[in-house]
């Protein structure tokens, strides 16, 4: 399978180093192997997605293995739920590909191709350089560049996507696996920023067209050095609220203990 055109939604076919649809909309493959399927008129800002600084902070933190238990837990769900002969898997909001690489190894054992999608061009460029076995694209998750019912599984870690789009692209009997913060996620870090720490609201998502088959909680304590604690802060949506003194305090810490709390849900597409 391949992509669909983000402008007219017709199938894209490879012609030399480009993807072209019957309406002659053309999207060139970058030298790193990814394709940019985010037309200018679909951008909400000049450089949407995470900045290069945020991406580098996330890569350093993830490469240190602090979120490997989350990657392993989702990988186990994929291994158990993908059919023996699958076609395609998509990682939405894949960033620089830390999770996608592990998912691709599982997909390959099931005969499936893996796609990674993110709105951040710097992240996709870095991912494509590092993980050539995955087909990466710069695209919006609000209109996925895939044809109807062509995906066996979609993984969505913290990433937004309309339920209608998931229902459109996932095969009957296929899977959507989501990960979101649980109530106590990073509360020690939030305690340095907010006068009163609000717990994350429990995940109450409903994905129309799907049935939730399993919900799994994953919680453990991380022990971070100062640089890792600052990198973690950079990854969070509340980093912009942190005063310079908070970053300085974290950077000086020999050890910073912080709790994780993840909610993983497995949704199966209704027939």
Overview of this protein structure:
By secondary structure, this protein is an alpha/beta fold. It has one domain (13-269): Rossmann fold, CATH 3.40.50. Helix content is 29%, strand content 27%. The chain has 8 helices and 11 strands. The chain has helices at 52-63, 68-81, 98-109, 121-130, 163-169, 187-191, 226-235, 244-252, and strands at 13-15, 18-20, 26-28, 35-36, 88-92, 113-118, 135-138, 151-157, 170-181, 210-224, 256-269. The strands form 2 sheets. An 8-stranded mixed β-sheet has the order 4-7-6-5-8-9-11-10.
Query: CATH class, please?
Result: Alpha Beta
Parts with pLDDT < 50 across at least 5 consecutive residues: none
Give the N-to-C terminal Cα separation: 21 Å
**Structural class based on helices, strands and sheet pairing:** alpha/beta
CATH homologous superfamily, by name? Answer: Vaccinia Virus protein VP39
Using the CA coordinates, give the radius of gyration: 19 Å
Mean pLDDT: 92
Strand arrangement, major sheet: 4-7-6-5-8-9-11-10
| Tally of individual domains | 1
Helix percent reads 25-40%
Architecture in CATH?
Answer: 3-Layer(aba) Sandwich
């Amino acid at each position: 399978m391949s992509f669909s055109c983000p402008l007219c939604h017709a199938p894209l076919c490879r012609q030399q180093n480009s993807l072209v649809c019957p309406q002659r909309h053309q999207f060139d493959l970058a030298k790193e192997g990814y394709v940019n399927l985010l037309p200018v008129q679909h951008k909400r800002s000049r450089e949407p997605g995470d900045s290069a600084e945020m991406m580098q902070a996330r890569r350093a933190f993830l490469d240190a293995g602090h979120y490997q238990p989350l990657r392993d837990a989702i990988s186990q769900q994929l291994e158990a739920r993908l059919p023996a002969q699958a076609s395609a898997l998509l990682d939405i909001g894949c960033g620089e590909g830390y999770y996608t690489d592990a998912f691709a190894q599982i997909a390959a054992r099931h005969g499936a191709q893996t796609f990674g999608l993110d709105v951040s061009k710097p992240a996709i460029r870095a991912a494509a350089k590092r993980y050539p076995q995955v087909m990466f694209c710069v695209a919006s998750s609000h209109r996925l560049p895939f044809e109807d019912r062509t995906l066996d599984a979609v993984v969505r870690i913290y990433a937004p996507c309309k339920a209608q789009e998931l229902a459109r692209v996932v095969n009957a009997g296929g899977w959507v696996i989501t990960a979101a913060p649980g109530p106590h996620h990073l509360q020690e870090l939030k305690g340095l920023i907010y006068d009163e720490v609000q717990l994350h609201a429990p995940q109450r998502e409903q994905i129309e067209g799907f049935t939730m088959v399993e919900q799994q909680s994953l919680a453990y304590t991380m022990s971070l050095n100062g640089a890792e604690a600052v990198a973690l802060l950079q990854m969070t949506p509340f980093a912009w609220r942190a005063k310079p003194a908070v970053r300085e305090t974290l950077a000086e810490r020999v050890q910073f203990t912080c709790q994780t709390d993840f909610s993983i849900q497995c949704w199966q597409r209704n027939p």
